[in-house]
User: Which sequence fits this backbone?
């Protein structure tokens, strides 16, 4: 069974631009979560989706948004990029999405650099 | 929210040595996972262990849920064990809270 895939793997943008990242969960998994990893803040939760519904959102500004499609694939969008948005963005999927009680499987991440 | 504290923050080992990494939680969790982050950034699942003990080769983990801590044991360390080890806990709010990690450096 294929793992979680994320595209693109690397991205360079300039301040003020917007970016869309994509995540395809493991087949059969319906919950998708997004995390941001930076050297200063570590791994921080962005949001979680299950059956196209956002069930929780982390403490990030409204510039960060996401959605999930009927096939469970998810996208996250960051508008008006700032230098501080440079980070590794990780996507995770799980089977049943009962709280966070299922094993979370992570993708390889998208490394975003904002210049 | 849940606070996760990992210790030690850094660890330097000789090949063949054993080590114990610890994770403390500020509150009860329904999900507890240990991960190894490889040099390319991917988080590799090591254990899903909200309670009890599990073993996988040279690695084992024990979680004492009533005392809100978990331990990861690495035996007979190898150079491939280098990297950052994270523990993360989750409750009923659909998210994992991560610790700051333990950076393991192997001396050949």
Assistant:
């Amino acid at each position: 069974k294929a793992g979680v895939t994320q595209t693109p793997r690397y991205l360079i943008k300039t301040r003020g631009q917007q970016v869309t990242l994509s995540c395809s969960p493991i087949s059969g998994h319906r919950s998708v979560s997004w995390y941001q990893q930076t050297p200063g803040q570590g791994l921080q939760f962005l949001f979680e989706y299950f059956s196209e519904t956002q069930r929780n959102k982390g403490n990030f500004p409204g510039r960060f948004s996401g959605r999930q499609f009927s096939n469970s694939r998810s996208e996250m969008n960051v508008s008006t990029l700032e230098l501080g948005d440079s980070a590794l963005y990780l996507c995770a999927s799980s089977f049943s999405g009962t709280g966070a009680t299922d094993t979370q499987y992570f993708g390889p991440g998208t490394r975003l650099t904002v210049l | 929210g849940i606070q996760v504290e990992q210790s030690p923050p850094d660890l330097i080992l000789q090949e063949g040595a054993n080590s114990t990494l610890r994770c403390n939680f500020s509150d009860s969790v329904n999900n507890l996972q240990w991960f190894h982050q490889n040099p390319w950034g991917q988080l590799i699942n090591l254990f899903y262990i909200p309670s009890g003990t599990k073993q996988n080769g040279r690695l084992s983990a024990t979680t004492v849920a009533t005392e809100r801590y978990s331990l990861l044991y690495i035996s007979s360390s190898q150079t491939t064990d280098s990297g950052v080890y994270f523990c993360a806990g989750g409750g009923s709010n659909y998210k994992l809270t991560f610790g700051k990690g333990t950076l393991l450096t192997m001396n050949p």
Notes: Chain B has a mean pLDDT of 94. Chain B touches chain A at residues 30-31, 33, 35, 40-45, 48, 50, 86, 88, 90-101 (CB under 8 Å).
